């Protein structure tokens, strides 16, 4: 079992969970700033946006998680801020981050869809790296399996289990590679990259979530699967409508 603590000096503790999240964020910011330069936009503005968006995303991810575990946190309110122990729901982070991103992107006149297109590859590579924080915290794993049938199973919490955090990390990395290729294709309109990210990430999460043992639940339903299913439909519908409008002469700018 990996040690979740990287370094400890008295009360000062650095945990692998936080380190992996910071690495993912830093890599995402670096790549996004490079893309803003490619599109002749001001990378300093994007960096300023990231400084606000990232804390907002973490707060949103935590509040989302706490909301769906309120029966526990209402009895242990002091633990609401204990993000170092895990408990960040990515859907909450995406929603909160996207809202703040849209507001600030509009302020800097990047354009809503262009802003989201720039951010999408950075978000998904950040997710790919950040999932390894779950490995060190020994969380976000799947149900017990027979290691002879699933040779890549990992020994977690007293049993061999599906390493669902690894599945999602690999899936996110594949999405990142695809988006780097996809955003340079001809015939795209602004928003296609962001919408494709939403559709692909949600498709993977829809499947992987079914293997997990720690899903946030809404009655008998897994919240992440409900959100992912709705996100796939909505993203593809918006993409279809925007392409239809573009083909009919609507004012939708092509991706550069």
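-> sequence recovered:
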């Amino acid at each position: 079992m990996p040690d979740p603590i990287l370094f400890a000096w008295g009360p000062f503790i650095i945990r692998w969970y936080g380190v992996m999240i910071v690495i993912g964020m830093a890599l995402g910011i670096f790549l996004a700033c490079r893309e803003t330069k490619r599109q002749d936009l001001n990378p300093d503005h994007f960096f300023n946006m990231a400084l606000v968006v990232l804390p907002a995303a973490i707060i949103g991810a935590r509040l989302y998680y706490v909301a769906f575990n309120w029966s526990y946190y209402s009895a242990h309110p002091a633990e609401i801020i204990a993000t170092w122990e895990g408990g960040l729901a990515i859907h909450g982070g995406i929603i909160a981050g996207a809202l703040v991103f849209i507001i600030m992107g509009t302020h800097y006149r990047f354009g809503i869809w262009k802003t989201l297109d720039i951010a999408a590859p950075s978000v998904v590579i950040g997710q790919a790296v950040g999932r390894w924080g779950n490995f060190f915290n020994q969380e976000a794993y799947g149900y017990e399996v027979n290691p002879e049938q699933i040779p890549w199973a990992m020994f977690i919490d007293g049993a061999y289990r599906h390493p669902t955090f690894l599945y999602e990390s690999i899936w996110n990395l594949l999405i990142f590679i695809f988006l780097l290729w996809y955003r340079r294709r001809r015939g795209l309109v602004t928003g296609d990259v962001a919408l494709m990210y939403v559709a692909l990430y949600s498709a993977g999460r829809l499947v992987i979530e079914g293997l997990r043992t720690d899903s946030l639940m809404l009655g008998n339903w897994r919240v992440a699967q409900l959100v992912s299913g709705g996100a796939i439909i909505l993203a593809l519908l918006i993409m279809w409508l925007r392409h239809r409008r573009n083909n009919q002469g609507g004012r939708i700018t092509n991706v550069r």
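The beta strands are 5-9, 12-15, 154-156, 159-161, 217-218, 221-222.
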